[in-house]
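Researcher: Next entry in the queue.
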Amino acid sequence: MKVISGSRGFSSSAGTSLTIGNFDGVHLGHRELLRRTVGKARDHGLMAVALTFAPHPIRYFFPRARFYEITTTEEKAGRLAELGIDAMVVETFNGEIGGMWPEEFARTVIHERLRARFVTVGYDFTFGKNRTGSPALLARIGRELDFSVDVVPPLLRGGSIVSSSRIRELLLAGRVREAEELLCRPYKVSGPVIAGAARGRRLGFPTANVRYDQELLPLPGVYVVEAEAGGILRRGVANVGFNPTFGENSLGVEVYLLDFEGDLYGQEMTVHFRDRIRDERKFKSAEELVRQIERDVEFARGARLSARGNACPDSAARRREAGGQ
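Model: Structure for this entry, 325 residues:
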């Protein structure tokens, strides 16, 4: 899949089947937009294109807002590629784009630069200056510019609409199992394993300290995780938090891998959060902490975890259904 910086840099000999959105998390609701986009592209010999924005418009309009993105641009690109998208166009969200009225955005970006013949958007899609453009307005403009608009209705799970905002709320509440169902995969953080205080080793539970790159961490606490390093996936127990027993005040991620002995320093580790065990708390002594860690480890050993990504249809199968490779 191509990743293209800005719609000005896009070129294609064929027209496009286009979808537009931030696609933060590339969750279950996004997948229907992507499925329809890819299906139209394959049916009509077009390029399947996803137009997204960086920075996120919320960061542009409200730079001081407390806002965390679920996926990095790189992870988003990988997910879109898995789902059959041919090109991801990352439009810089600045005064030029944010100041375009809906008609100008539709004519300049959608029609002239991206050569859209089909546009797929969500029911709550807004565009143009002051967010004055709606799916109905886009459809009217499309009739004038010769592209059709497909509006995808909201997807409900558990009585609520699947959205990036809902997933952020679940993660910040530590409800990682529910977030996994909506993301179609466990939430993960990744980064190199760095040296820590070696306190876990002295307690008999050596941990890998992960210098994570992501903005969003689940609620501080102890979790059942699957951690991947060196191409091997192992079950473990992760502590997200501040180590209050020892008076630390910087947020960190430490992972104890079950039945593992070895040196992981410098290796890249990806930590998949599968279930929450308990809140982080301060213990009266190191001995009390060790007894609790032993219970945490036994919980992790016995935890019944669903197959990762089991909540969503297989992406490869969907690509085959759409006629892709």
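Model: Residues 154 and 161 are 6 Å apart (CA to CA).
Researcher: Noted, moving on.
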